[in-house]
What does this fold into?
Amino acid sequence: MKPGRPNSSTRWSVADKWGADVVAARHHGFVQLPDALIRYQAELQLSPMELCVLLHVLRFWWRADEYPHPPISLLAREIGVSRRTVERAVVSLERKGLVVRGPSEQKGMGGPTVRRFQFDGLRERLRRLVSTKEGIGGTASMRNASDDGLFDQVSAEGVIDEFDAVPAEMDKVEGVLRA
It folds into this structure.
């Protein structure tokens, strides 16, 4: 086994890695995002501030069918920068076609006015990058590894829906993904 590789005693959960108290913290404790967003920061031409703002916005995206709408003032306070700095980063993300801020809408009867962040451009760019650089998705084919017992399901687009590999089989998983 390679150094630093998981073994049968490796604990995989977020709570095991970060501690249950951190994971149980306010607002669900962790954010789900594709590794490709970080790995392809340079190809997406994301400045450190743009990535930071994007990550903060993404922590409010809880449901796939409901885009987030965090206030710019909250993002600025959490990041520790001015509202103007966040606004500039958002405008730049919009110009790059990675995010779109929807029209103003009133939340509830007499509630605050919000603008939702939409990520269709970012998702499409990430799909193209992953397809081009890794051969996954789009027209690239990915071998269904369910015969090996590694994946429960691979969708038609090559996206792994459920991952059911045990730590001792990680080398097999990497081999399948490279095939």
About this structure: The mean pLDDT is 76. Helices lie at 14-18, 20-23, 35-39, 48-58, 72-79, 83-95, 120-134, 170-178.
